[in-house]
Amino acid sequence: MSPSALRRQIGQLLIAGFNGTAIPVELKSLAREFGLGGVILFARNIASVEQVAEVCFEASRLTPDMPAWVSVDQEGGRVARLKSPFTEWPPMATLGRSGDVTLAERFARALATEMKTIGISLDYAPVLDIHTNPKNPVIGDRALAETAEDVARLGQAIIRTLQAEGIAACGKHFPGHGDTSTDSHLELPLVEHPPERLRDVELKPFRAAIDADVATMMTAHILMPALDEARPATLSKRIVTGLLRDDLGYEGVVLSDDLEMKAIARDYQVPPAAVLAIEAGCDGVLICSGDWEAQGAALEALVYAVEEERLSLTRIEEALKRQRRAKERFLPSRPSLRPASLKALQQTLGQDAHLRVAEEMARFS
Question: Does the structure show a pLDDT above 80 at 336?
């Protein structure tokens, strides 16, 4: 790959947050210069369903030669960026209490229908962490259940259904954020279990997700000394490449959690963190605050690391290949020429059939 080609493609490794309810000119400029892997939507980007549909439509076309992911954290419960008139889903713990795989499939089908209509192609769900620690401040009722077996079974059902409906799923947070007592948004959590416990408990839902051919996995900003004493999972080659790739055999796209979370940002600035994450085996990084200067600096750092031979070109090409393969699977080769109409949105979002599923889940609150 020539230096100019590298520069035009390196942005495929970035999924960017932005500020406001329209795609900012600075992000369009980054996409023109480097390409862009995708965008992630937050509540700050959402004003109305028509506006969101327009933003999704525009975002998907930011890079002409490769469609961009339009992604969101739409789990249900307290982590849901799309509020009414979208269906508002109960926490995922309700599915665990129900123990009902069919209900999980009905939920995922309804969720996928609404996201597909608005123009979202990648959902950072399901959470595959196990609720083994009641003092966990960040996972809690986001987890499907309290046992590895139940999380694996329900997680598989959600992944298979979302993806059958055309939405790329994301298993998170590898290798397991369930048994932590601190919030990685604020500090670096520590998980001190021995390798045998991690294999028998934490890793079981991720193995099930791999069996379900999950499109993407998201790494956790946690320190697991049994696997790597020095680096958090997101930046650890032992964990991302050695464990997830080599031992578990995962062939899909690995994404970092947001590199601006304090678990990482306290010790690593965003540009070097991006280089370390890609070097570790991630195929893309999330930089979510909307700080386009940090996003641009991260892309420049990746280019410079390749030029300086601190990061191999082979590693970049592997990541780009995995991104391309996933996009060919989930993003249409002939996308629609316009966003969904208001009538189509009104007929789909929050429809009675979806509300009945949400009500059925809520009985297990």
Answer: no
Domain span at residue 72 reads 3-362
Which CATH number is 127's domain given?
3.20.20.300
CA-based nearest residue to 287, from 267, 269, 305, 304: 269
List pLDDT tens digits, range 264-306.
Answer: 999 999 999 999 999 999 999 999 999 999 999 999 999 999 9
Q: Which two tokens stand for residue 117?
A: 């209509």
- Of 87, 157, 100, give the one whose Cα is nearest residue 128: 157
Longest dimension (CA), the chain: 58
Question: Nearest-CA neighbor of 160 among 238, 106, 120?
Answer: 106
Segment 30-39, tens digit of pLDDT: 999 999 999 9
250 pLDDT higher than 80: yes
Distance of CA 211 to the CA centre of its chain: 18
For residue 4, give Cα distances in angstroms to 33, 36, 183, 302, 358: 10, 15, 40, 13, 50
Cis preceding linkage at 126, omega within 30: yes
Convert the pLDDT of each residue in 86-133 to its tens digit. Answer: 999 999 999 999 999 999 999 999 999 999 999 999 999 999 999 988
**Residue 146 and residue 178 in contact, taking contact as beta carbons nearer than 8 Å:** no
What are the residue ranges of helices labelled H in the chain?
3-9, 25-34, 49-59, 93-98, 101-118, 148-164, 195-197, 204-211, 237, 262-265, 270-280, 292-307, 313-330, 342-348, 352-362
Vertex 120: Cα angle to 73 and 94 (nearest 5): 40
With contact defined as beta carbons under 8 Å apart, do 79 and 123 qualify? Answer: no
Which residue is listed with tokens 């028998």? 200
**Number of domains the chain is built from:** 1
Tokens 């892997």 sit on residue: 37
Phi, psi of 135 (to 5 degrees): -90, 5
Cβ partners under 8 Å of residue 71, min gap 6: 15, 38, 39, 40, 41, 120, 121, 122, 123, 124
Q: Label residue 207 exposed, middle or buried (CB < 10 Å: 0-12, 13-18, 19+).
A: middle
Q: How far apart are CA 42 and CA 223, in angstroms?
A: 27
Q: Across all residues in the chain, what is the average pLDDT? A: 94
Residues designated as active site = 185, 257
